[in-house]
Amino acid sequence: MKLVELKVTYEAENYEKAKEEIINFLYEFGIQGVKIDEPFEKNPLDYYSNEKQFLLDTYAISVYFPKNFYFEKKKKLIIESFNEKFSKREDLIYNLEFYELDDEDYLENWKKYLYPEKISEHFVVKPTWRKYNASENEKIIELDPGRAFGTGSHPTTYLCVQLMEKYIDENVNVIDVGTGSGILMIVAKMLGSKEVWGIDIDEDAVEAAKENLELNNIKIDETIKVIHGDLLGKVEEKKFDVVVANILPDVLILLLDSISKVLKENGIIILSGIIKDKEQDILNAIKNQNLKVIDKNESKDWIAFTVKSV
To answer: What are the binding residues for S-adenosyl-L-methionine?
Structure first.
């Protein structure tokens, strides 16, 4: 599969603020990873430890998308939306460049930037090529992010995991809508869920999820399923105690009716992927489905909700 890299080179009055704004904006378009290039403060000794980084004199953010049937439309929308949001800013100048990559080139390059990361009270996400000594109460998720979004490092994922720790145990069955790398399926199973399903419209994500389940010694069987397709078309009459959905806000709004239809009476939905600018839109959609918020988790500019029927 081909991938496209979008590289945003920029100068700003406040580089940290600009970096956070640009990354949060691009996450709304379903990026599969972020690489950040920043110049060293020029200590001459740094030249010998990392010559390439020492010579870097620009700030840049690279993000990655699959090159599929929809990409040209997405590219046009990204450029138009980015310019609409940032072009009139006096404290920021930027340049957008797109590059086509081979999947293997992307994966080998991306591995350099991933390390074990503790994402909640109990869970540590560990790339398969790294070593980590776990403490007694830690659960280790072996993950190869591969072709699908979801390494655990972004707030949208760890906010969701932190809520899952509160609401999932051996008495519930769970479906992960938009499963991506499968990390939330793995979390649900490690929390003891008696049945875990995952579904995604991206065939590459489905294959990546299956591979990551296998890495964590979770077998695909009657209680563990990864499905390619849309929710109602594939799940039919099945009902779940917990529905987890960490996806883009506009997609959450579109899917909330379908999600409600696969929820058991007194079941709960954990919604993540919500940037603060979209919070009220999500709250309106929740209310329209006769649901209510019973818990909220937030970090930086991101929010996750737990909701249930009124």
So the answer is: 157, 178, 200, 246
Strand partners, 224: 196
Verify that 179 and 285 share a domain, yes or no: yes
The residue from 110, 125, 143 where one domain ends is 110
pLDDT in tens, the chain (310 residues): 577 889 999 999 999 999 989 998 998 887 767 888 877 544 444 433 444 443 445 889 998 887 777 788 889 999 999 999 999 999 999 999 999 887 666 666 667 767 888 999 999 999 888 899 999 899 999 987 554 455 667 888 999 999 999 999 999 999 999 998 899 999 999 999 999 999 998 887 898 899 999 999 999 999 999 999 989 888 978 999 999 999 989 899 999 999 999 999 999 999 999 989 899 999 999 999 999 999 999 998 899 999 998 8
Note whether 99 and 126 are same-domain residues. Answer: no
In sequence order, what are the beta bridge partners of 268? 242, 308
Burial of 176 (0-12, 13-18, 19+ CB in 10 A): buried
What the block records as the tokens of 133 is 């000594």
Which pTM value belongs to this model?
A: 0.76
Could you tell me the residue range of the domain that residue 133 belongs to? Answer: 114-309
If asked whether residues 102 and 187 sit together in one domain, one would say no
Binding residues: 157, 178, 200, 246
Using CA of residue 164, residue 170, residue 174, residue 176, what is the dihedral sign?
Answer: positive
Tokens of residue 56, six digits: 């870097």
Pair (195, 81) in one structural domain: no
